[in-house]
From TrEMBL, chain A:
Protein family per UniProt: Belongs to the archaeal Rpo3/eukaryotic RPB3 RNA polymerase subunit family.
Major subcellular site: nucleus
GO biological process terms on file: DNA-templated transcription
Gene Ontology MF terms: DNA binding; DNA-directed RNA polymerase activity; protein dimerization activity
Example of a GO cellular component annotation carried by this entry: RNA polymerase III complex
UniProt-recorded name of the protein: DNA-directed RNA polymerases I and III subunit RPAC1
Organism whose genome encodes this protein: Phasianus colchicus
CDD domains per the UniProt record, alphabetical: RNAP_I_II_AC40
Pfam (any one): RNA_pol_L
SMART domains cross-referenced by the UniProt entry: RPOLD
Coiled-coil zones: none
UniProtKB/TrEMBL annotation, chain B:
Family: Belongs to the archaeal Rpo11/eukaryotic RPB11/RPC19 RNA polymerase subunit family.
KW Transcription (keyword) present: yes
Example of a GO MF term: DNA-directed RNA polymerase activity
CDD domains: RNAP_I_III_AC19
Keywords, comma-separated and alphabetical: DNA-directed RNA polymerase, Transcription
Record-given protein name: RNA polymerase I and III subunit D
Pfam families tied to this protein: RNA_pol_L_2
The organism's place on the tree of life at top rank: Eukaryota
GO biological process: transcription by RNA polymerase III; transcription elongation by RNA polymerase I
Gene Ontology CC terms, in alphabetical order: RNA polymerase I complex; RNA polymerase III complex
Annotated DNA-directed RNA polymerase RBP11-like dimerisation domain residues: 4-54
Length: 346, 72
């Protein structure tokens, strides 16, 4: 019985010891464990697999994926960061820039501004094509000049009162339709995601007049194309109390973990500790610093339960990003399969 | 592919980080041609992705429907 429990532990949990982490690698390959049938079975995978959405608010999506292997979960994370395409400013044609911000710095800043444009409506630009066509390019114009306010009070030193247009925001970027884009996108409103991104500061007499070309790209090429503010996952924590813990030890135990993880119940007058919600814990391992408690608790993580957290920059909603990432992985498999069929094997 | 009982050896290595090339090696037990587990692995991965996609979309719909009910 104990042997079975320990093999289960080895298969399903990653254990956090005092000085290291054990059981990190996947070991349930066919033939490794007698009595377990580990050969790949799609039906068994489908029965065990589930997705639970925990929270969706304001561009942040938190969901659980249970029953999947680490390699595939990591593949989704990496694709979300680097291979889901977006539109971003790539070429900046500077007609006039008398501001204090250098041309290249200004161009760099403009490239990093997220543009609200669904990349699925556009194509990638052909290599070597300098001009750009209407199906692969979005054109924006930023034309702004700072001037003095004649109505300002004599002694005022507040720039907001003294000058007009001294702060250049992303809301000053306007879309200039190319070719037949007004017909292709009649309801579209292409603009930066946020209106209040400060691009540059001006003083009277300075002006910025630039034309920008946005193209479709992926994060692997340049981080400005990454559609997520960040995408990360963690494994579900699993805290087990190996022995009942009472009174003062229970209070100390509660302080060792994040708030809400350990709950103290009053059973027959004695304070007894109980694990209420292990999910909230961030595993600071504070419990290992207490000699009396460190052997009474087992800290582990469930190997195939991933808590994903995807935060979008606002271009596409996070659930659309996740579906696009999964489709991109499927597209890669399909390309490989096609290659296998077309390339002759000896 | 690692979960298939016919595969004796399966591994990959990257020849050099600056080049985007991966050397992939599959060796099968017995007489099965090595391309077969490779093909099966890719097909299985496609199946996994499709299932993940369907389950995810179903969960999103359920979550949003639940939130609509709570708001009313």
């Amino acid at each position: 019985m104990a042997a079975k429990r320990s093999t289960d532990e080895m298969r399903e949990r990653v254990v956090l010891g005092e000085f290291g982490v054990r059981n990190v690698h996947t070991t349930d390959f066919p033939g490794n464990y007698p009595g377990y049938d580990d050969a790949w079975d799609p039906r068994r995978f489908e029965e065990a697999f589930r997705v639970d959405v925990v929270r969706e608010e304001d561009g942040l999506l938190e969901f659980d994926m249970v029953g999947i292997d680490a390699a595939i979960a990591n593949a989704f994370r990496r694709i979300l960061l680097a291979e889901v395409p977006t539109m971003a400013v790539e070429k900046v044609f500077v007609y006039n820039n008398t501001s204090i911000v250098q041309d290249e710095i200004l161009a760099h800043r403009l490239g990093l501004i997220p543009i609200r444009a669904d990349p699925r409506l556009f194509e990638y630009r052909n290599q070597g094509d300098e001009e750009g066509t209407e199906i692969d390019t979005l054109q924006f114009q930023l034309k702004i000049k700072c001037s003095r306010n004649p109505q300002a009070a004599k002694e005022s030193s507040d720039p907001n009162e003294l000058y007009f247009n001294h702060k250049v925001y992303s809301k000053h970027m306007t879309w200039v339709p190319l070719g037949n884009q007004t017909d292709l996108f009649p309801d579209a409103d292409f603009r930066p995601v946020h209106d209040d991104i400060l691009i540059a500061l001006l003083r009277p007499g300075q002006e910025i007049d630039v034309l920008m070309h946005c193209v479709k790209g992926i994060g692997k090429d340049h981080a400005k194309f990454s559609p997520v503010a960040t995408a990360s996952y963690r494994l579900l924590p699993d805290i087990t109390l190996l022995q009942p813990i009472e009174d003062e030890a229970a209070e100390t135990l509660q302080k060792c973990f994040s708030p809400g993880v350990i709950e103290i119940q009053n059973i027959k007058g004695k304070k007894v500790a109980r694990v209420a919600n292990a999910r909230l814990d961030t595993f600071s391992r504070e419990v290992f610093r207490h000699e009396g408690l460190k052997n009474l608790v087992r800290l582990a993580r469930v190997r195939n339960h991933y808590i994903f957290s995807v935060e979008s920059t606002g271009i596409l909603p996070p659930d659309v990003l996740v579906t696009e990432a999964i489709k991109i992985l499927m597209g890669k498999c399909q390309r490989f399969l096609n290659e296998l069929d077309t390339v002759p094997m000896e | 592919m690692l979960f298939s009982p016919d595969v004796e050896f399966c591994g990959y290595c990257i020849t050099h980080p600056s080049e985007s090339k991966i050397n992939f090696r599959i060796q099968t037990r017995g007489s099965l041609p090595a391309v077969e587990p490779f093909r099966k692995g890719l097909n299985d991965l496609m199946g996994v992705c499709q299932h993940v996609l369907d389950t995810f979309e179903k969960s999103m719909r359920k979550y949003r429907a639940q939130r609509e009910e709570e708001m009313q």
